[in-house]
Amino acid sequence: MAISNNLIQKLLLLLRPYMKDEMERSAYLIRALGTDAPVLYRLDWDTPVNVFIPNMVKELVAFGEITPGKPALSALLEVIREDVGVDVKIRLHELLQQIREELKKQQPISEDLNKQELSSGISRPPVHTLDIYILKLAFEAAKAVVHLRVSKAMGTGFMIAPELLMTNNHIISSREQAEQSEYTFNYQLDIDGKECSTHTVQALPGGVFYTNAELNYTIVSLKDAPSFGKPLILKSKQVRRDDRVAIIQHPGGHLKKISMQNNFVAYADTKVVQYTRSTLPGSSGSPVLNDEFDVVAIHHSGGDLTEPGTDQRYLRSEGTSAIAVLDDLKNNAPGIYDRLQR
After folding, report:
1. How many helices (H) and strands (E) does the chain have?
2. Helix axes 86-104 and 5-15, enclosed angle (nearest 10)
3. Is 59 exposed, middle or buried (0-12, 13-18, 19+ CB in 10 A)?
4. Across-strand partners of 315?
5. pLDDT by position in tens, the chain (length 342)
6. Domain tally, the chain
């Protein structure tokens, strides 16, 4: 299914003021679709707005309906309509009508998925089972994952020592920025689906601060960090292709989530780890974890990425290997290195 280029251009002109950056884009799309809609993981979030909007529209139309009779594109436009003036509301209403009319003319193709799989040679992945204690490891690791508010942006970080937090350099690149940010623990739902009580702290003035722009990570000392359990351990062991990984994150700056199904390492060396699970803005700075819930990488980007050493591009996420982080700290910040959990 598709809509005309004429309609796409009209949507570009109308939506451009509301989707200038990653945070605005993710805020609207998550409000409209939720955090788990698969189409969100197909978007290249950091492209220029004139590229992002046409690609987003095409992906939403191709994705189809989020519930029966509710196309994903319509859901997005309805959410944006709540926040705009009367003139824009009218134009959005007119565009919604045109979109519905165009989509109605296109008959959906009904397919028998089992027959399609057999004829194409594609089979569903085998069911993967894990020991139940893995859930306990995930729950304990999540306590060390922290929501970051940096100026107008959001991100994720995680504790690597009782008062030391790690995140991305592109989120916090200076001591001044670190001291102006907020660090919130326990921003998640409890077992009853209700929001937990949170605890927000700030960086310790004059405390530990170290950053490496090339490896895209930063370490900050927090003031009065609450008790959160055990810091996460950085693992100096290279992961391999097809290893499973989990990511604990604050996608879109929202409540804490965990992604631990069908996440596989697609490429790894001593500096870069790429994995099949795409992520959202706000997930930057998240720990990428192995089956023991030790950190094997710090997540920093996602989208249409080039695999190192090849010209091949894939829809993946990427992080800096914990091996590279540990080597850098050992050589350039031994005081921090000596404080890490082993």
Report:
1. 10, 16
2. 160
3. middle
4. 304
5. 678 888 889 889 889 999 988 878 888 898 888 876 778 877 878 789 999 999 999 989 888 888 887 888 989 999 898 888 888 888 888 888 888 887 777 655 444 434 443 343 444 444 456 788 889 999 999 999 999 999 878 999 999 999 999 999 999 999 999 999 999 999 999 999 999 999 999 999 999 999 999 999 999 999 999 999 999 999 999 999 999 999 999 988 889 999 887 789 999 999 999 998 767 778 999 999 999 999 999 999 988 889 998 889 888 899 999 999 999 999 999 999 999 987
6. 3
Which CATH number fits the domain that encloses residue 208?
Answer: 2.40.10.10
Same domain, 78 and 148: no
Give the structural domain span for 199.
Answer: 143-223
Same structural domain, 14 and 61: yes
Instruction: Let me know if residue 47 belongs to a domain.
Output: yes
Of 88, 104, 120, the residue that ends a domain is 104
Q: How far is CA 224 from CA 39, 156, 174, 324, in A?
A: 40, 19, 20, 29
